[in-house]
Design a protein that fits this description.
Elements: E1 2-4, E2 13-21, E3 30-33, E4 45-52, H1 61-78, E5 85-88, E6 94-98, E7 103-110, H2 122-125, E8 139-146, E9 151-158, H3 164-178, H4 206-209, E10 210-212, E11 229-236, H5 238-247, H6 258-276, E12 286-291, E13 293-294, H7 305-312, E14 319-320, E15 323-327, H8 328-333, H9 336-348, H10 353-366, E16 371-373, E17 385-388, E18 408-412, E19 420-426, E20 434-441, H11 442-451, E21 457-458, H12 461-468
Helix pairs in contact: 1-3, 5-6, 6-9, 6-11
Length: about 475
Amino acid sequence: MVSEGGIRGELIVNMTKKEVVAAALPLQEHWLPLSNLDLLLPPVDVGVFFCYKKCGKDLSFGSMVGVLKKALAQALLTYYAFAGELVSNPFGEPEILCNNRGVDFVEAFAEVELKDLNLYNPDDTIEGKLVPKKKQGVLAVQATELKCGGLVVACTFDHRIADAYSANMFLVSWAEMAQSKPNSSVPCFRRSLLNPRRPGLIHPSLNDMYVPVTSLPPPKDPEPDSDYLISRIYYITSEQLNNLQSLATTTNGCRRTKLESFSAFLWKMVAKHAIINNVDKNITKMGKMGIVVDGRTRLNEEGDENKASLMGSYFGNVLSIPYGAKQVNELDEKPLSYVANEVHDFLDGAVTKEHFLGLIDWVEAHRPVPGLAKIYCSGTEDGPAFVISSGQRFPESKVDFGWGKPLFGSYHFPWGGDAGYVMPMPSPIGNGDWVVYMHLLKGQVELIENEAAHLFRPLTFEYLDQSLNISKEC
């Protein structure tokens, strides 16, 4: 029906069929409001994909698609928000109309074998080809057959509906339905868990982290020949991660986490790129880095096991993005341990219950004007900005629909903001390595590849083949 690519050796993907998959049983139509934390998200879509080698059971593509659709219809009974639509309420705020509109499901064929799929450069192979463009509803799915008999299953969902934690719950439940297993996680949609306080209590620091969209300057057109954001996927060995963590340890023995150490290293690299490319040396650039924090465990009441259980299965967004801002020269000159301490310090204030309660109150105080994380819309005029979101809970191995675990899976999130986005995830090798999805400026990526090639290694199937033993058919 539709062909994507086809010039200069680009990946060709032919869309062969499209239908709408609704929940297996009729659902009572109702409205589901977004929480105050959902209202902080701009209208952006998140992609996620999984690659499977040819099944030893000799299942046809059609039979695998049948399993996916049947299981999806069952999963939508409990994850009914994904089968709905986003509409505006009388105040102009988005709400979910849970009407069982269903999920657009696309079938496709790609002119490539799994072993030849370029995962290092998802801009050429994943974006708009193997990960679907969502045009209606809040979730879209694509199943793509490969020349070798392998399969790519991909989803795109509206970030205003769900964060990665929520999407991970759905993906695991969908796979469990496919294997007729009991649903291990029933989602909780109880918005009262995130109700604002009366009266509200807002810490002044929140005004540094978030901004009403009405206060934002109008977007500027990019300058000719200006740098632009690209996506790449790397792997980092556990040995290199341990080395980073050792370097980030202070002289008094204060040990930083691997995420803090990794974030500090990347912050220094991005700062160095800004220094090299600073035309006006009289202007000091500021390097800004944010780290996504999940508030589910922070919002628990001590000793309240029921609320802990509800928050543990809460479906929606429970995120905050604290960030640090430092002069790029300071970030470049100081040792990694100093920068790691700075990362720890700005995170420290956001990993508390009071921070998230205050953030809920902040949104309430500004409604119906939506708010936005400042770092998402931080331009590059005063310095670079990027966000790191830990994907260490990515349940790749659990997304087994009955034909084996994925050879590889990753989030794909070219989010459209001015800031970059980076997500480290556990490697499917299972040896402590990380896989890193990186969406940064082309110049920043080139500097990182030139100066930190020992750390950021392009993801290849030769690497994945270490323990996954890709068959000759794929």
